[in-house]
Amino acid sequence: MDAELAPGLVLGVDVGGTFTDVVAVEAATGRLRLALKLLSTPGDPAEAVLAGVDRVRAALGGDVEALMHGTTVGTNALIEKRGARTALVATAGFRDVIELRRQARPLLFDLAQRVSQPLVPRDLRIEVAERLAADGSVVTPLQDGAIAAAAATLAAAKVEAVAICLLHSYADDRHERAMEAALRDALPGAFVTCSSDVCREYREFERFSTATVNAYIGPPVRRYLQRLEGALSSRGIARFGIVKSNGGITGAANAARHPVHLIESGPAAGLIAAASLARGEGELNLIAFDMGGTTAKAGVVLDGKPRLTPEFVADRFVDGVDRGGYPLRSPALDVIEIGAGGGSIAAIDSGGVLKVGPRSAGADPGPACYGRGGTLPTVTDAHLVAGTLDPGSYGPDALRLDEELARRAIADHVARPLGWDVERAAEAILAIATASMVEMVRLATVRRGLDPRDFALLAYGGAGPMHAAAIAREVGCRTMLLPPSPGLFSALGALLGGARHDIVRTMLQPADALDPATLAATLDAMGRELAARLESDRELSPGGAATHAVALDMRFKGQLFEIAVPIDRGALPSGAEAARAFRKAYAAEYGYDLTEASVEIVSLRSSASLNPWQAALPERQRSVPLSPMRRSVLDGGRRIDMPVVARESLADGAPLAGPALIVEASTTLRVLAGQRAVMRKSGVLAVSEESRDA
Amino acid sequence: MPDAPLRMRDPVTFEVVRSALYATCEEMKSVMTRAAFSPLLSLSADLSCALLDARGEVVAQGNDIPVHLGSMPFTAAGILRKFPAEEWLPGDAVLMNDPFAGGNHLPDMTLMSAIFAGDGGGPGLVGFAASRVHWPDVGGVSPGSSAVTDHVIKEGVRVPPVRIMRGYRVEQGILDLLLANVRVPGDRMGDFSAQVACNARGAARVSELVARYGAATLAAVMRETLDYSEALVGEALAGLRDGTYRASALLDGDGYSQSADAAGRDAFRLAVAVEKVGRRLSVDFAGTSPAVRGPVNAPIAVTSSACYYVLLAVAGGHVPPNAGAYRPMRIRAPEGSLVHARYPSPVVAANTETSNRLADLLLAALAPALGDRAVAGSYGCGAVYTLAGIDPARGASFVHYETVGGGMGASSRGPGLGGFRVHMGNTMNLPIEAMEAQMPVRFEAYGLRPGSGGGGRHAGGEGVLKSIRALADGVEFSVTAERALQPAPGIAGGGAGAAARFSVARADGSIATLASKTPSARLDRGDVLVIETAGGGGWGIA
After folding, report:
1. In chain A, N or C: fewer CB atoms in 10 Å?
2. A40 pLDDT exceeds 90?
3. SS3 sequence, A263-319?
4. A109 in B contact zone (CB under 8 Å)
């Protein structure tokens, strides 16, 4: 094809543990041109990305205008403890804050429990004489001599990264900045992070933890981004964006400075795609449900937007056991994760009750039916026995599944101890796995004051669709949706987030004392910083003006949890107006107002974003409707001869009544008796109860 | 199999409803932490939530503080003795904190609300939702209500079970009377409202379960959830060696005298004999000293919760906590002793101090039965300190209550954790940056005490150093801790942890050493309070 005439392309990339997905869309129209699934290259994840780029160019020709990327490089460095040799500079007397954590142990009754280790060992945590008060005033100045001594110590220790963690730096960053400048000179090439730069909020443990993770994963993330950026630019691709935990896109420079903002990059991309689908389908309230091999995740899209959380904990569960993890004070799309996946192991506990997960057979040895030496029964084995999974072709590497091995594992470990037959045991395993995901979906909503009955459930990921219709029925979701090509969802999501930055400033004061001039001035200062960060990301956007959002975090005086109340940047509220808006939001959340209590402002948060690229969902594949196959599937204690329908053979708008299975390359959707599935014009499959409208 | 238990006949329904009950407790907690006023609740999470069946048996509890968990059955029983289950009507709720009627100590205020499936009384009762919350002040002689005194009446306002809500309406007179006797009544009003909202959420969720599965199924799940936990604990006990195991230890003191004094030598003895036979465990505290003058006396609810905690820990930590889990255990404690206080003994410090020493004691006794799962002694307390006074810069009074972590004991499985809360408590610390914004103090150090863990092949966990400078005159403070005189013992040849130390470095350069229970004392501008909690014991010969 003539490159002159070929339309410009934008690529979306999702690097997962097993597969790297690449989608190519036309920049001007958003039309999907090509989707690739490549084996990931964990040693150097860039290899698979670049191979994908080259294959797209070879197949389509044309300019690649930009590449947008969800990455787990930082997350993996943290989880596998392959980060940099990192030091920490602390206010004298406070080097142990990251080790003391919040003093609460993760497990109440485990006398020999382990807790996530500090990322900086004690001998690399050094103290400097300096001190600020809570209002930012200097109590003990930071002397040049102290700075020089610290720099010399760290230079001798040959550290690759440093987190500067000084008390009250959220109120005034001058001491952290002075230390940073000296360390940049003394440690050329080292990755230096100020806690006030990654998080401008009070609460020392959470801020220091955020800064320490940033420093620890900084060098490997920076190396990866530089390598990829260089390789892309040598291919003529100058625009390179990374998905952040907050769902926005940022450029390699910003990403390399704040790698801690990328920790939830992968899940965020999926949620962005879910939000886009929510708007496209007019299903503005959506629970996005993703189930993989070891875990299941649920995120919430509210009014067409993914819900953000101001703080989350990274690397909390190790083999399903709570180790405390590393709190990160950085806005992230709000995702709940539990240890329930296709590989979750079913077992009878010592009380004689059947449990599923959180232990997982993982990818190796994997479920018994993989025939790779696993003998413990998993959810995948139960699906195979139940007939929901076709043993013929499983996954993109077309693994053949061995039903006999699955039966034996379930018989040995579940059926025989309970005195049941294998089929009854298989159904029980599936029901219990579904029940734990039902609780997860409930928690993702009710804990946040939302009612799941106001939501549709969107399933993606390989294993999710086999359970999704049952979950939707149990929690009372109106509709269950399955996007076209659910396996490409996260790669598409990488294209759909606009550049976005969030900044928070602690502003502790009574609402009455809010001075509009100070508010305006603070917002201006934050606006300048946002503009500077966005400026370097401007080329990542197809164009258009930045949009801003501002909110005040408020609470009743004496409380320690806040509610974010959006305010209008064009018409800044008086203190009394802000307080009224808070009371209204509080009553909506908790059902009562406290008229006696006064309202306090804790912080001001501001975000700015640029328009995303367009990317349409893949167009439906169509084939001549074949007469459906039938398969014998367990359903409520008996086998039913169920129709098995190829997804691409479904006609628009024609309902298919359950029970039925709808199959496609990467997954199987199970529709229950009493439900019906309808293929929408958009290519989205919608499942609803017969008594309701799809 | 119509007579087989539901969990055998229909394990799926059993597991679904059972996990919904536990998830409801967590949801109740999240309602309360986010709506509460006290930093103890919203930041430290000093609270717990439970669901009870129609007979008042605790069926499900959150992942909460052990001293709260284990005492909840006593509190429920105390409330139901006064208000029998058949007398409750929809919208009724009872409040109580009385340590001599099933409570643990006065600051822990429990609200228990009826749950009805539909309208009408009597047979419609399906259970109760309960929440226990540490109020930062319940009156008494000093702010924070945790002072050393010689009488429970001086510890604060005592609330026997009172019906605070009838038909969803608060009995305003009772609430007014209560709030008139606490400091900062406005904040406590907010905490009470949060407690009401929390219980209402629990009741709503349980009602949904009734609507979905029917009252009979819910009742069966509740009954069998108790049986299930009982079976898990029994199974774990069956694996331990039978025998009778003994241990004894001395408390540091009670704020009036100390175990190191000639007079106090035999006044602070904790003694226990634990008999393990098959699937049962009997605990007898015969030989324990009579109740003492200061507030380290444990009500039976607190003593029992320490026993229950050890039971759950020994069972492996995966048993859903509820009244059924506690059935395999018998507890005998001489009335009027340090471990079974009667009116009018002061009790406030037993919750954080004596309870943890009891947990250490029981684990030391059981060490031979536990074999390679035995653990060394811990820092053995909550290490509570309080600060109160007037902030001249802000022109407002302040009250501050916080616990401090310390060393855990080592075991064959690894070193002890340093700087964490152990055993009966698990409240979080408060951010220094938040406290300095609210009080005239400056923290000068907060770190681990290097080398304070007991030596051995696995070292004990390190204790914590926290030092606090007063920036104003007349800051009242108190310290209530343990193991300044009785360090944490090692095990299997491991060394003892370093003892705790408490002192005030005065602005004039003098240093005053403090006892581990120091009743109200005063800091002036420039004085520094230094708290050093104990290290845990080590395991094995180095």
Report:
1. N
2. no
3. CCHHHHHHHHHHHHHHHHHCCCCEEEEEECCCCEEEEEEECCEECEECCEEECCEEC
4. yes
Within its chain, how far is the Cα of A588 from the centroid? 27
- Residue A158 shares a structural domain with residue A67: no
- Please indicate, yes or no, whether residues A487 and A518 belong to a single structural domain of this protein: no
* Average pLDDT value for residue range B16-27: 85
Interchain contact, A435 vs B15, CB within 8 Å? yes
Peptide bond into A365 cis (omega under 30): yes
CA distances to A97, A236, A254, A257, A606 from A197, in Å? 18, 33, 12, 10, 15
pTM value is 0.89
> Which residues face A645 on adjacent strands?
A662
Is B36 in CB contact (< 8 Å) with chain A? yes
Average pLDDT of chain A? 88
Task: Point out the residue among A93, A203, A352 whose CB comes nearest to the CB of B431.
Answer: A203
Cβ neighbours of A471 in B, within 8 Å = none
Q: Which residues in chain A are contacts of B385 at CB distance < 8 A?
A: none
A351 to chain B: which residues are within 8 Å by CB? 228-229, 231-232, 235
- Inform me whether the pLDDT recorded for A203 exceeds 90: yes
- pLDDT at residue B123 above 90? no
Is residue B217 within 8 angstroms of chain A, CB to CB?
no
Q: For the purposes of burial, counting CB atoms within 10 Å of the CB of B229, is it exposed (0-12), middle (13-18) or buried (19 or more)?
A: buried
- For B190-232, the pLDDT digits (tens) are 889 889 989 998 998 899 889 888 899 999 999 999 999 999 9
Do A452 and A507 share a structural domain? no
Q: Tell me: do A254 and A327 sit in the same domain.
A: no
State the total domains in chain A. Answer: 5
Compute CA distances A674 → A468, A689, B124, whole Å: 15, 6, 32
pLDDT in tens, B360-405: 999 999 999 999 999 999 999 999 999 999 999 878 888 888 999 9
Q: Are residues A198 and A141 in the same domain?
A: yes
* Best residue of A101, A108, A356 to probe chain B, by most B CBs closer than 10 Å: A108
CB pairs under 8 A between A and B: 201
Domain residues for the domain of A282 are 267-493
- What single-letter amino acid sits at B523? L
Residues A433 and A360 both lie in one domain: yes
Domain membership of residue A654 (yes or no) is yes
Average pLDDT over residues A70-94: 93
CB-neighbour burial class of residue B61 (10 A; exposed 0-12, middle 13-18, buried 19+): buried
Do A652 and A548 fall within a single domain? Answer: no
CA distances (Å), origin B70, targets B307, B324, B404: 8, 11, 22
CATH number at residue A68: 3.30.420.40
Q: Are residues A256 and A372 in the same domain?
A: no
Residue A240, pLDDT score: 92
Whether residue A57 has pLDDT greater than 60: yes
Sorting pLDDT into bands at 50, 70 and 90, what band is A534?
A: confident
Residue A392: CB atoms within 10 Å: 8
A200 contacts chain B (CB < 8 A): no
pLDDT interval class at B297 (50, 70, 90): very high
Q: Is the dihedral of CA B506, B511, B516, B517 positive or negative?
A: negative
pLDDT(A168) > 70: yes
A637 touches chain B (CB under 8 A): no
Residue A2 maps to a domain: no
Percent of chain A with pLDDT over 90: 48
Domain residue ranges in chain B: 6-230, 375-542
Q: Note whether residue A670 is domain-resident.
A: yes
Question: Is A218 part of a structural domain of the chain?
Answer: no
CATH number of domain containing A141: 3.40.50
The shortest C-alpha distance from B64 to chain A (Å) reads 8
B83 touches chain A (CB under 8 A): no
